[in-house]
Each structure stands twice: as structure tokens, then as C-alpha cells.
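[Meeting: bench + compute handoff]

Bench side (C.D.) handed over the final construct sequence. Compute side (W.E.) agreed to return the predicted structure before the next meeting so the bench team could plan truncations. Sequence as handed over:
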Amino acid sequence: MDMFLQLLVIGLAVGSIYALVALGFVLIYKSSDAINFAQGEFLLVGTYVCLTLITAYNIPFLPALLLTLLFSALLGLVVERMVLRPFIGEPVISMIMATIGLSSFMAGCVHLFWGTDTQVFPKVFPDTPVQIGPVVVAQVYLWSLLTVLALLAVFTLFFKYSKMGIAMRATADDQQAALSMGISVKKVFAATWAISAIVSAVGGVLLGNINGVNSSLAAIGLKVLPVALLGGLDSVPGAIVGGFIIGILESLAGGYLDQYLGGGVKEVVPFVVLVLILMLKPYGLFGKREIERV
């Protein structure tokens, strides 16, 4: 039971990070009907920028993180303006292919500037583990969980009450109706990509503190895609729930099945769960079912 509880806490912490990164997928899909296959590279670039600010320029962690979020927001704005805005009005597949090309370009830049060796963040969180009842958990997991929960609450309030959040929701529901109400769809797209880059950077920094930083961290983008699909690509609550489900199942599979099946089971579990659930609910757990009349 102690092992189960410990794996559960770790799964909640990692799953919360998955949920945060999946939020970027959902926002872009809701606003433009496109899937951003460069999400993992946004995560990777943000992580390396924060690590460089800390190690090369001796900037403390929190100021370095704030500067990283600013850089990520600007990166998202530049990418939207230079790469993706020309595809507005074009078939969705064109935008998807643009994000695939962007993914390769950003990955190449990371290899050029930072190489492929694994790097480690300086000690940010205390080493002393925390005991919660019978469970002993490293503080990095608890701080990651609390940070992500706070950010998810902030974004929920932002989407529900802020002027830009309401504009983003309106644009996601019907772009033409939003335009007729005076909403600038281009500004909404820009804000969406900026927020997507920000949440990816935060997720990358937290994962970097847990596992270290190397180019394979970009694979989290593809791992998080099942999270977004599981919850429903057009559902923010679905991204949150899907993140926790995949994180917990991945942790339990790694703890209980890897030792019997030779390892790697937790890498497969998200996709197996995704296929099984989509067989029953093709639009995801919280996705909006659409009926197209022809």
C-alpha cells in the first residue's frame, strides 16, 4: 500500500505537468482547428533558456523563470506572426504541416546551440523528502504539483472572467460570429500561441528539475498528445483530467509492470489507454460531439 500511495503521488505530480502542456494543444486546436506538433520543441527551448540563464548568467531561479516566460511569450508571438498567420483561411492541413516543419527547425536550433548531452538544473528544491502519512515523497514532486495546480486555477479564471479569455472562447466557438462582434481573431490567435508557449516552458522547467534536460525532452510533446485526445481536443477540463489519468497510469505501470515485462511499459500505456477510450468515446471524455450535415 505504501508503494501504491507513493506511485500515486508521483503520478499526480507528473500528470499535472502533462495537463499543463496539454492545455497548449487544446487552446490552439480550439482557436484554429489545428494541432501544434511543435509543442514539444516550445517546451524544450523554454527549458534550455531557463537553464542557461541560471548556469551561464548566475540568475536566481525565480527571476530566470520569469524571464523565460517572457521569452516564451515573445517566441509564441513571433511564430504566430511569421509562420502561421499566412495560413489563415488556408486548409487546416497546411497549418499542421507548418507546425511539423517548425518542430524540425526548432529541434535543429536546440542541437546547434545546446548540443545533446544531458544537463542538470542546480538545486532548486530542497533535497529533504516530505513524509505524508506513510508516504515519503521528494519535494520536487510536491512543488511541481502545487505550482501546476495554481497555474491551472489562474488560467481557468482567466478564460472565464477576463476580456481576452472571453474573446478566446468566443473565437473558439465561431470565428465568423466573433468577427461580427468586433473581436480581433488575429489578436486572439497571437495570445493563444503566446500562452501555449508559456505553459510549455513551465512544464519543461518542472520536468527538467525532475529528470534533467536533453533533446529527448521534446518527446513529451508527443506523449502529451494522447492526454489532449483523451480528454477531448476542444475541452480545457478534459486536458486537466486526461493529464492526471495518464500520469497516474504511467506511474503505476512503471512501478508494477516494468519489472516483469522488461521495462518501457509506461511509455506504451498512454497510447493503449487512448485507443481503448476512443473506441468507446471517439470525441474523448469531454470532447464536443459534432454532427456534420451534408
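W.E. noted at the follow-up: The domain at 2-280 is CATH 1.10.3470 (ABC transporter involved in vitamin B12 uptake, BtuC). C.D. will use this when planning the next construct.
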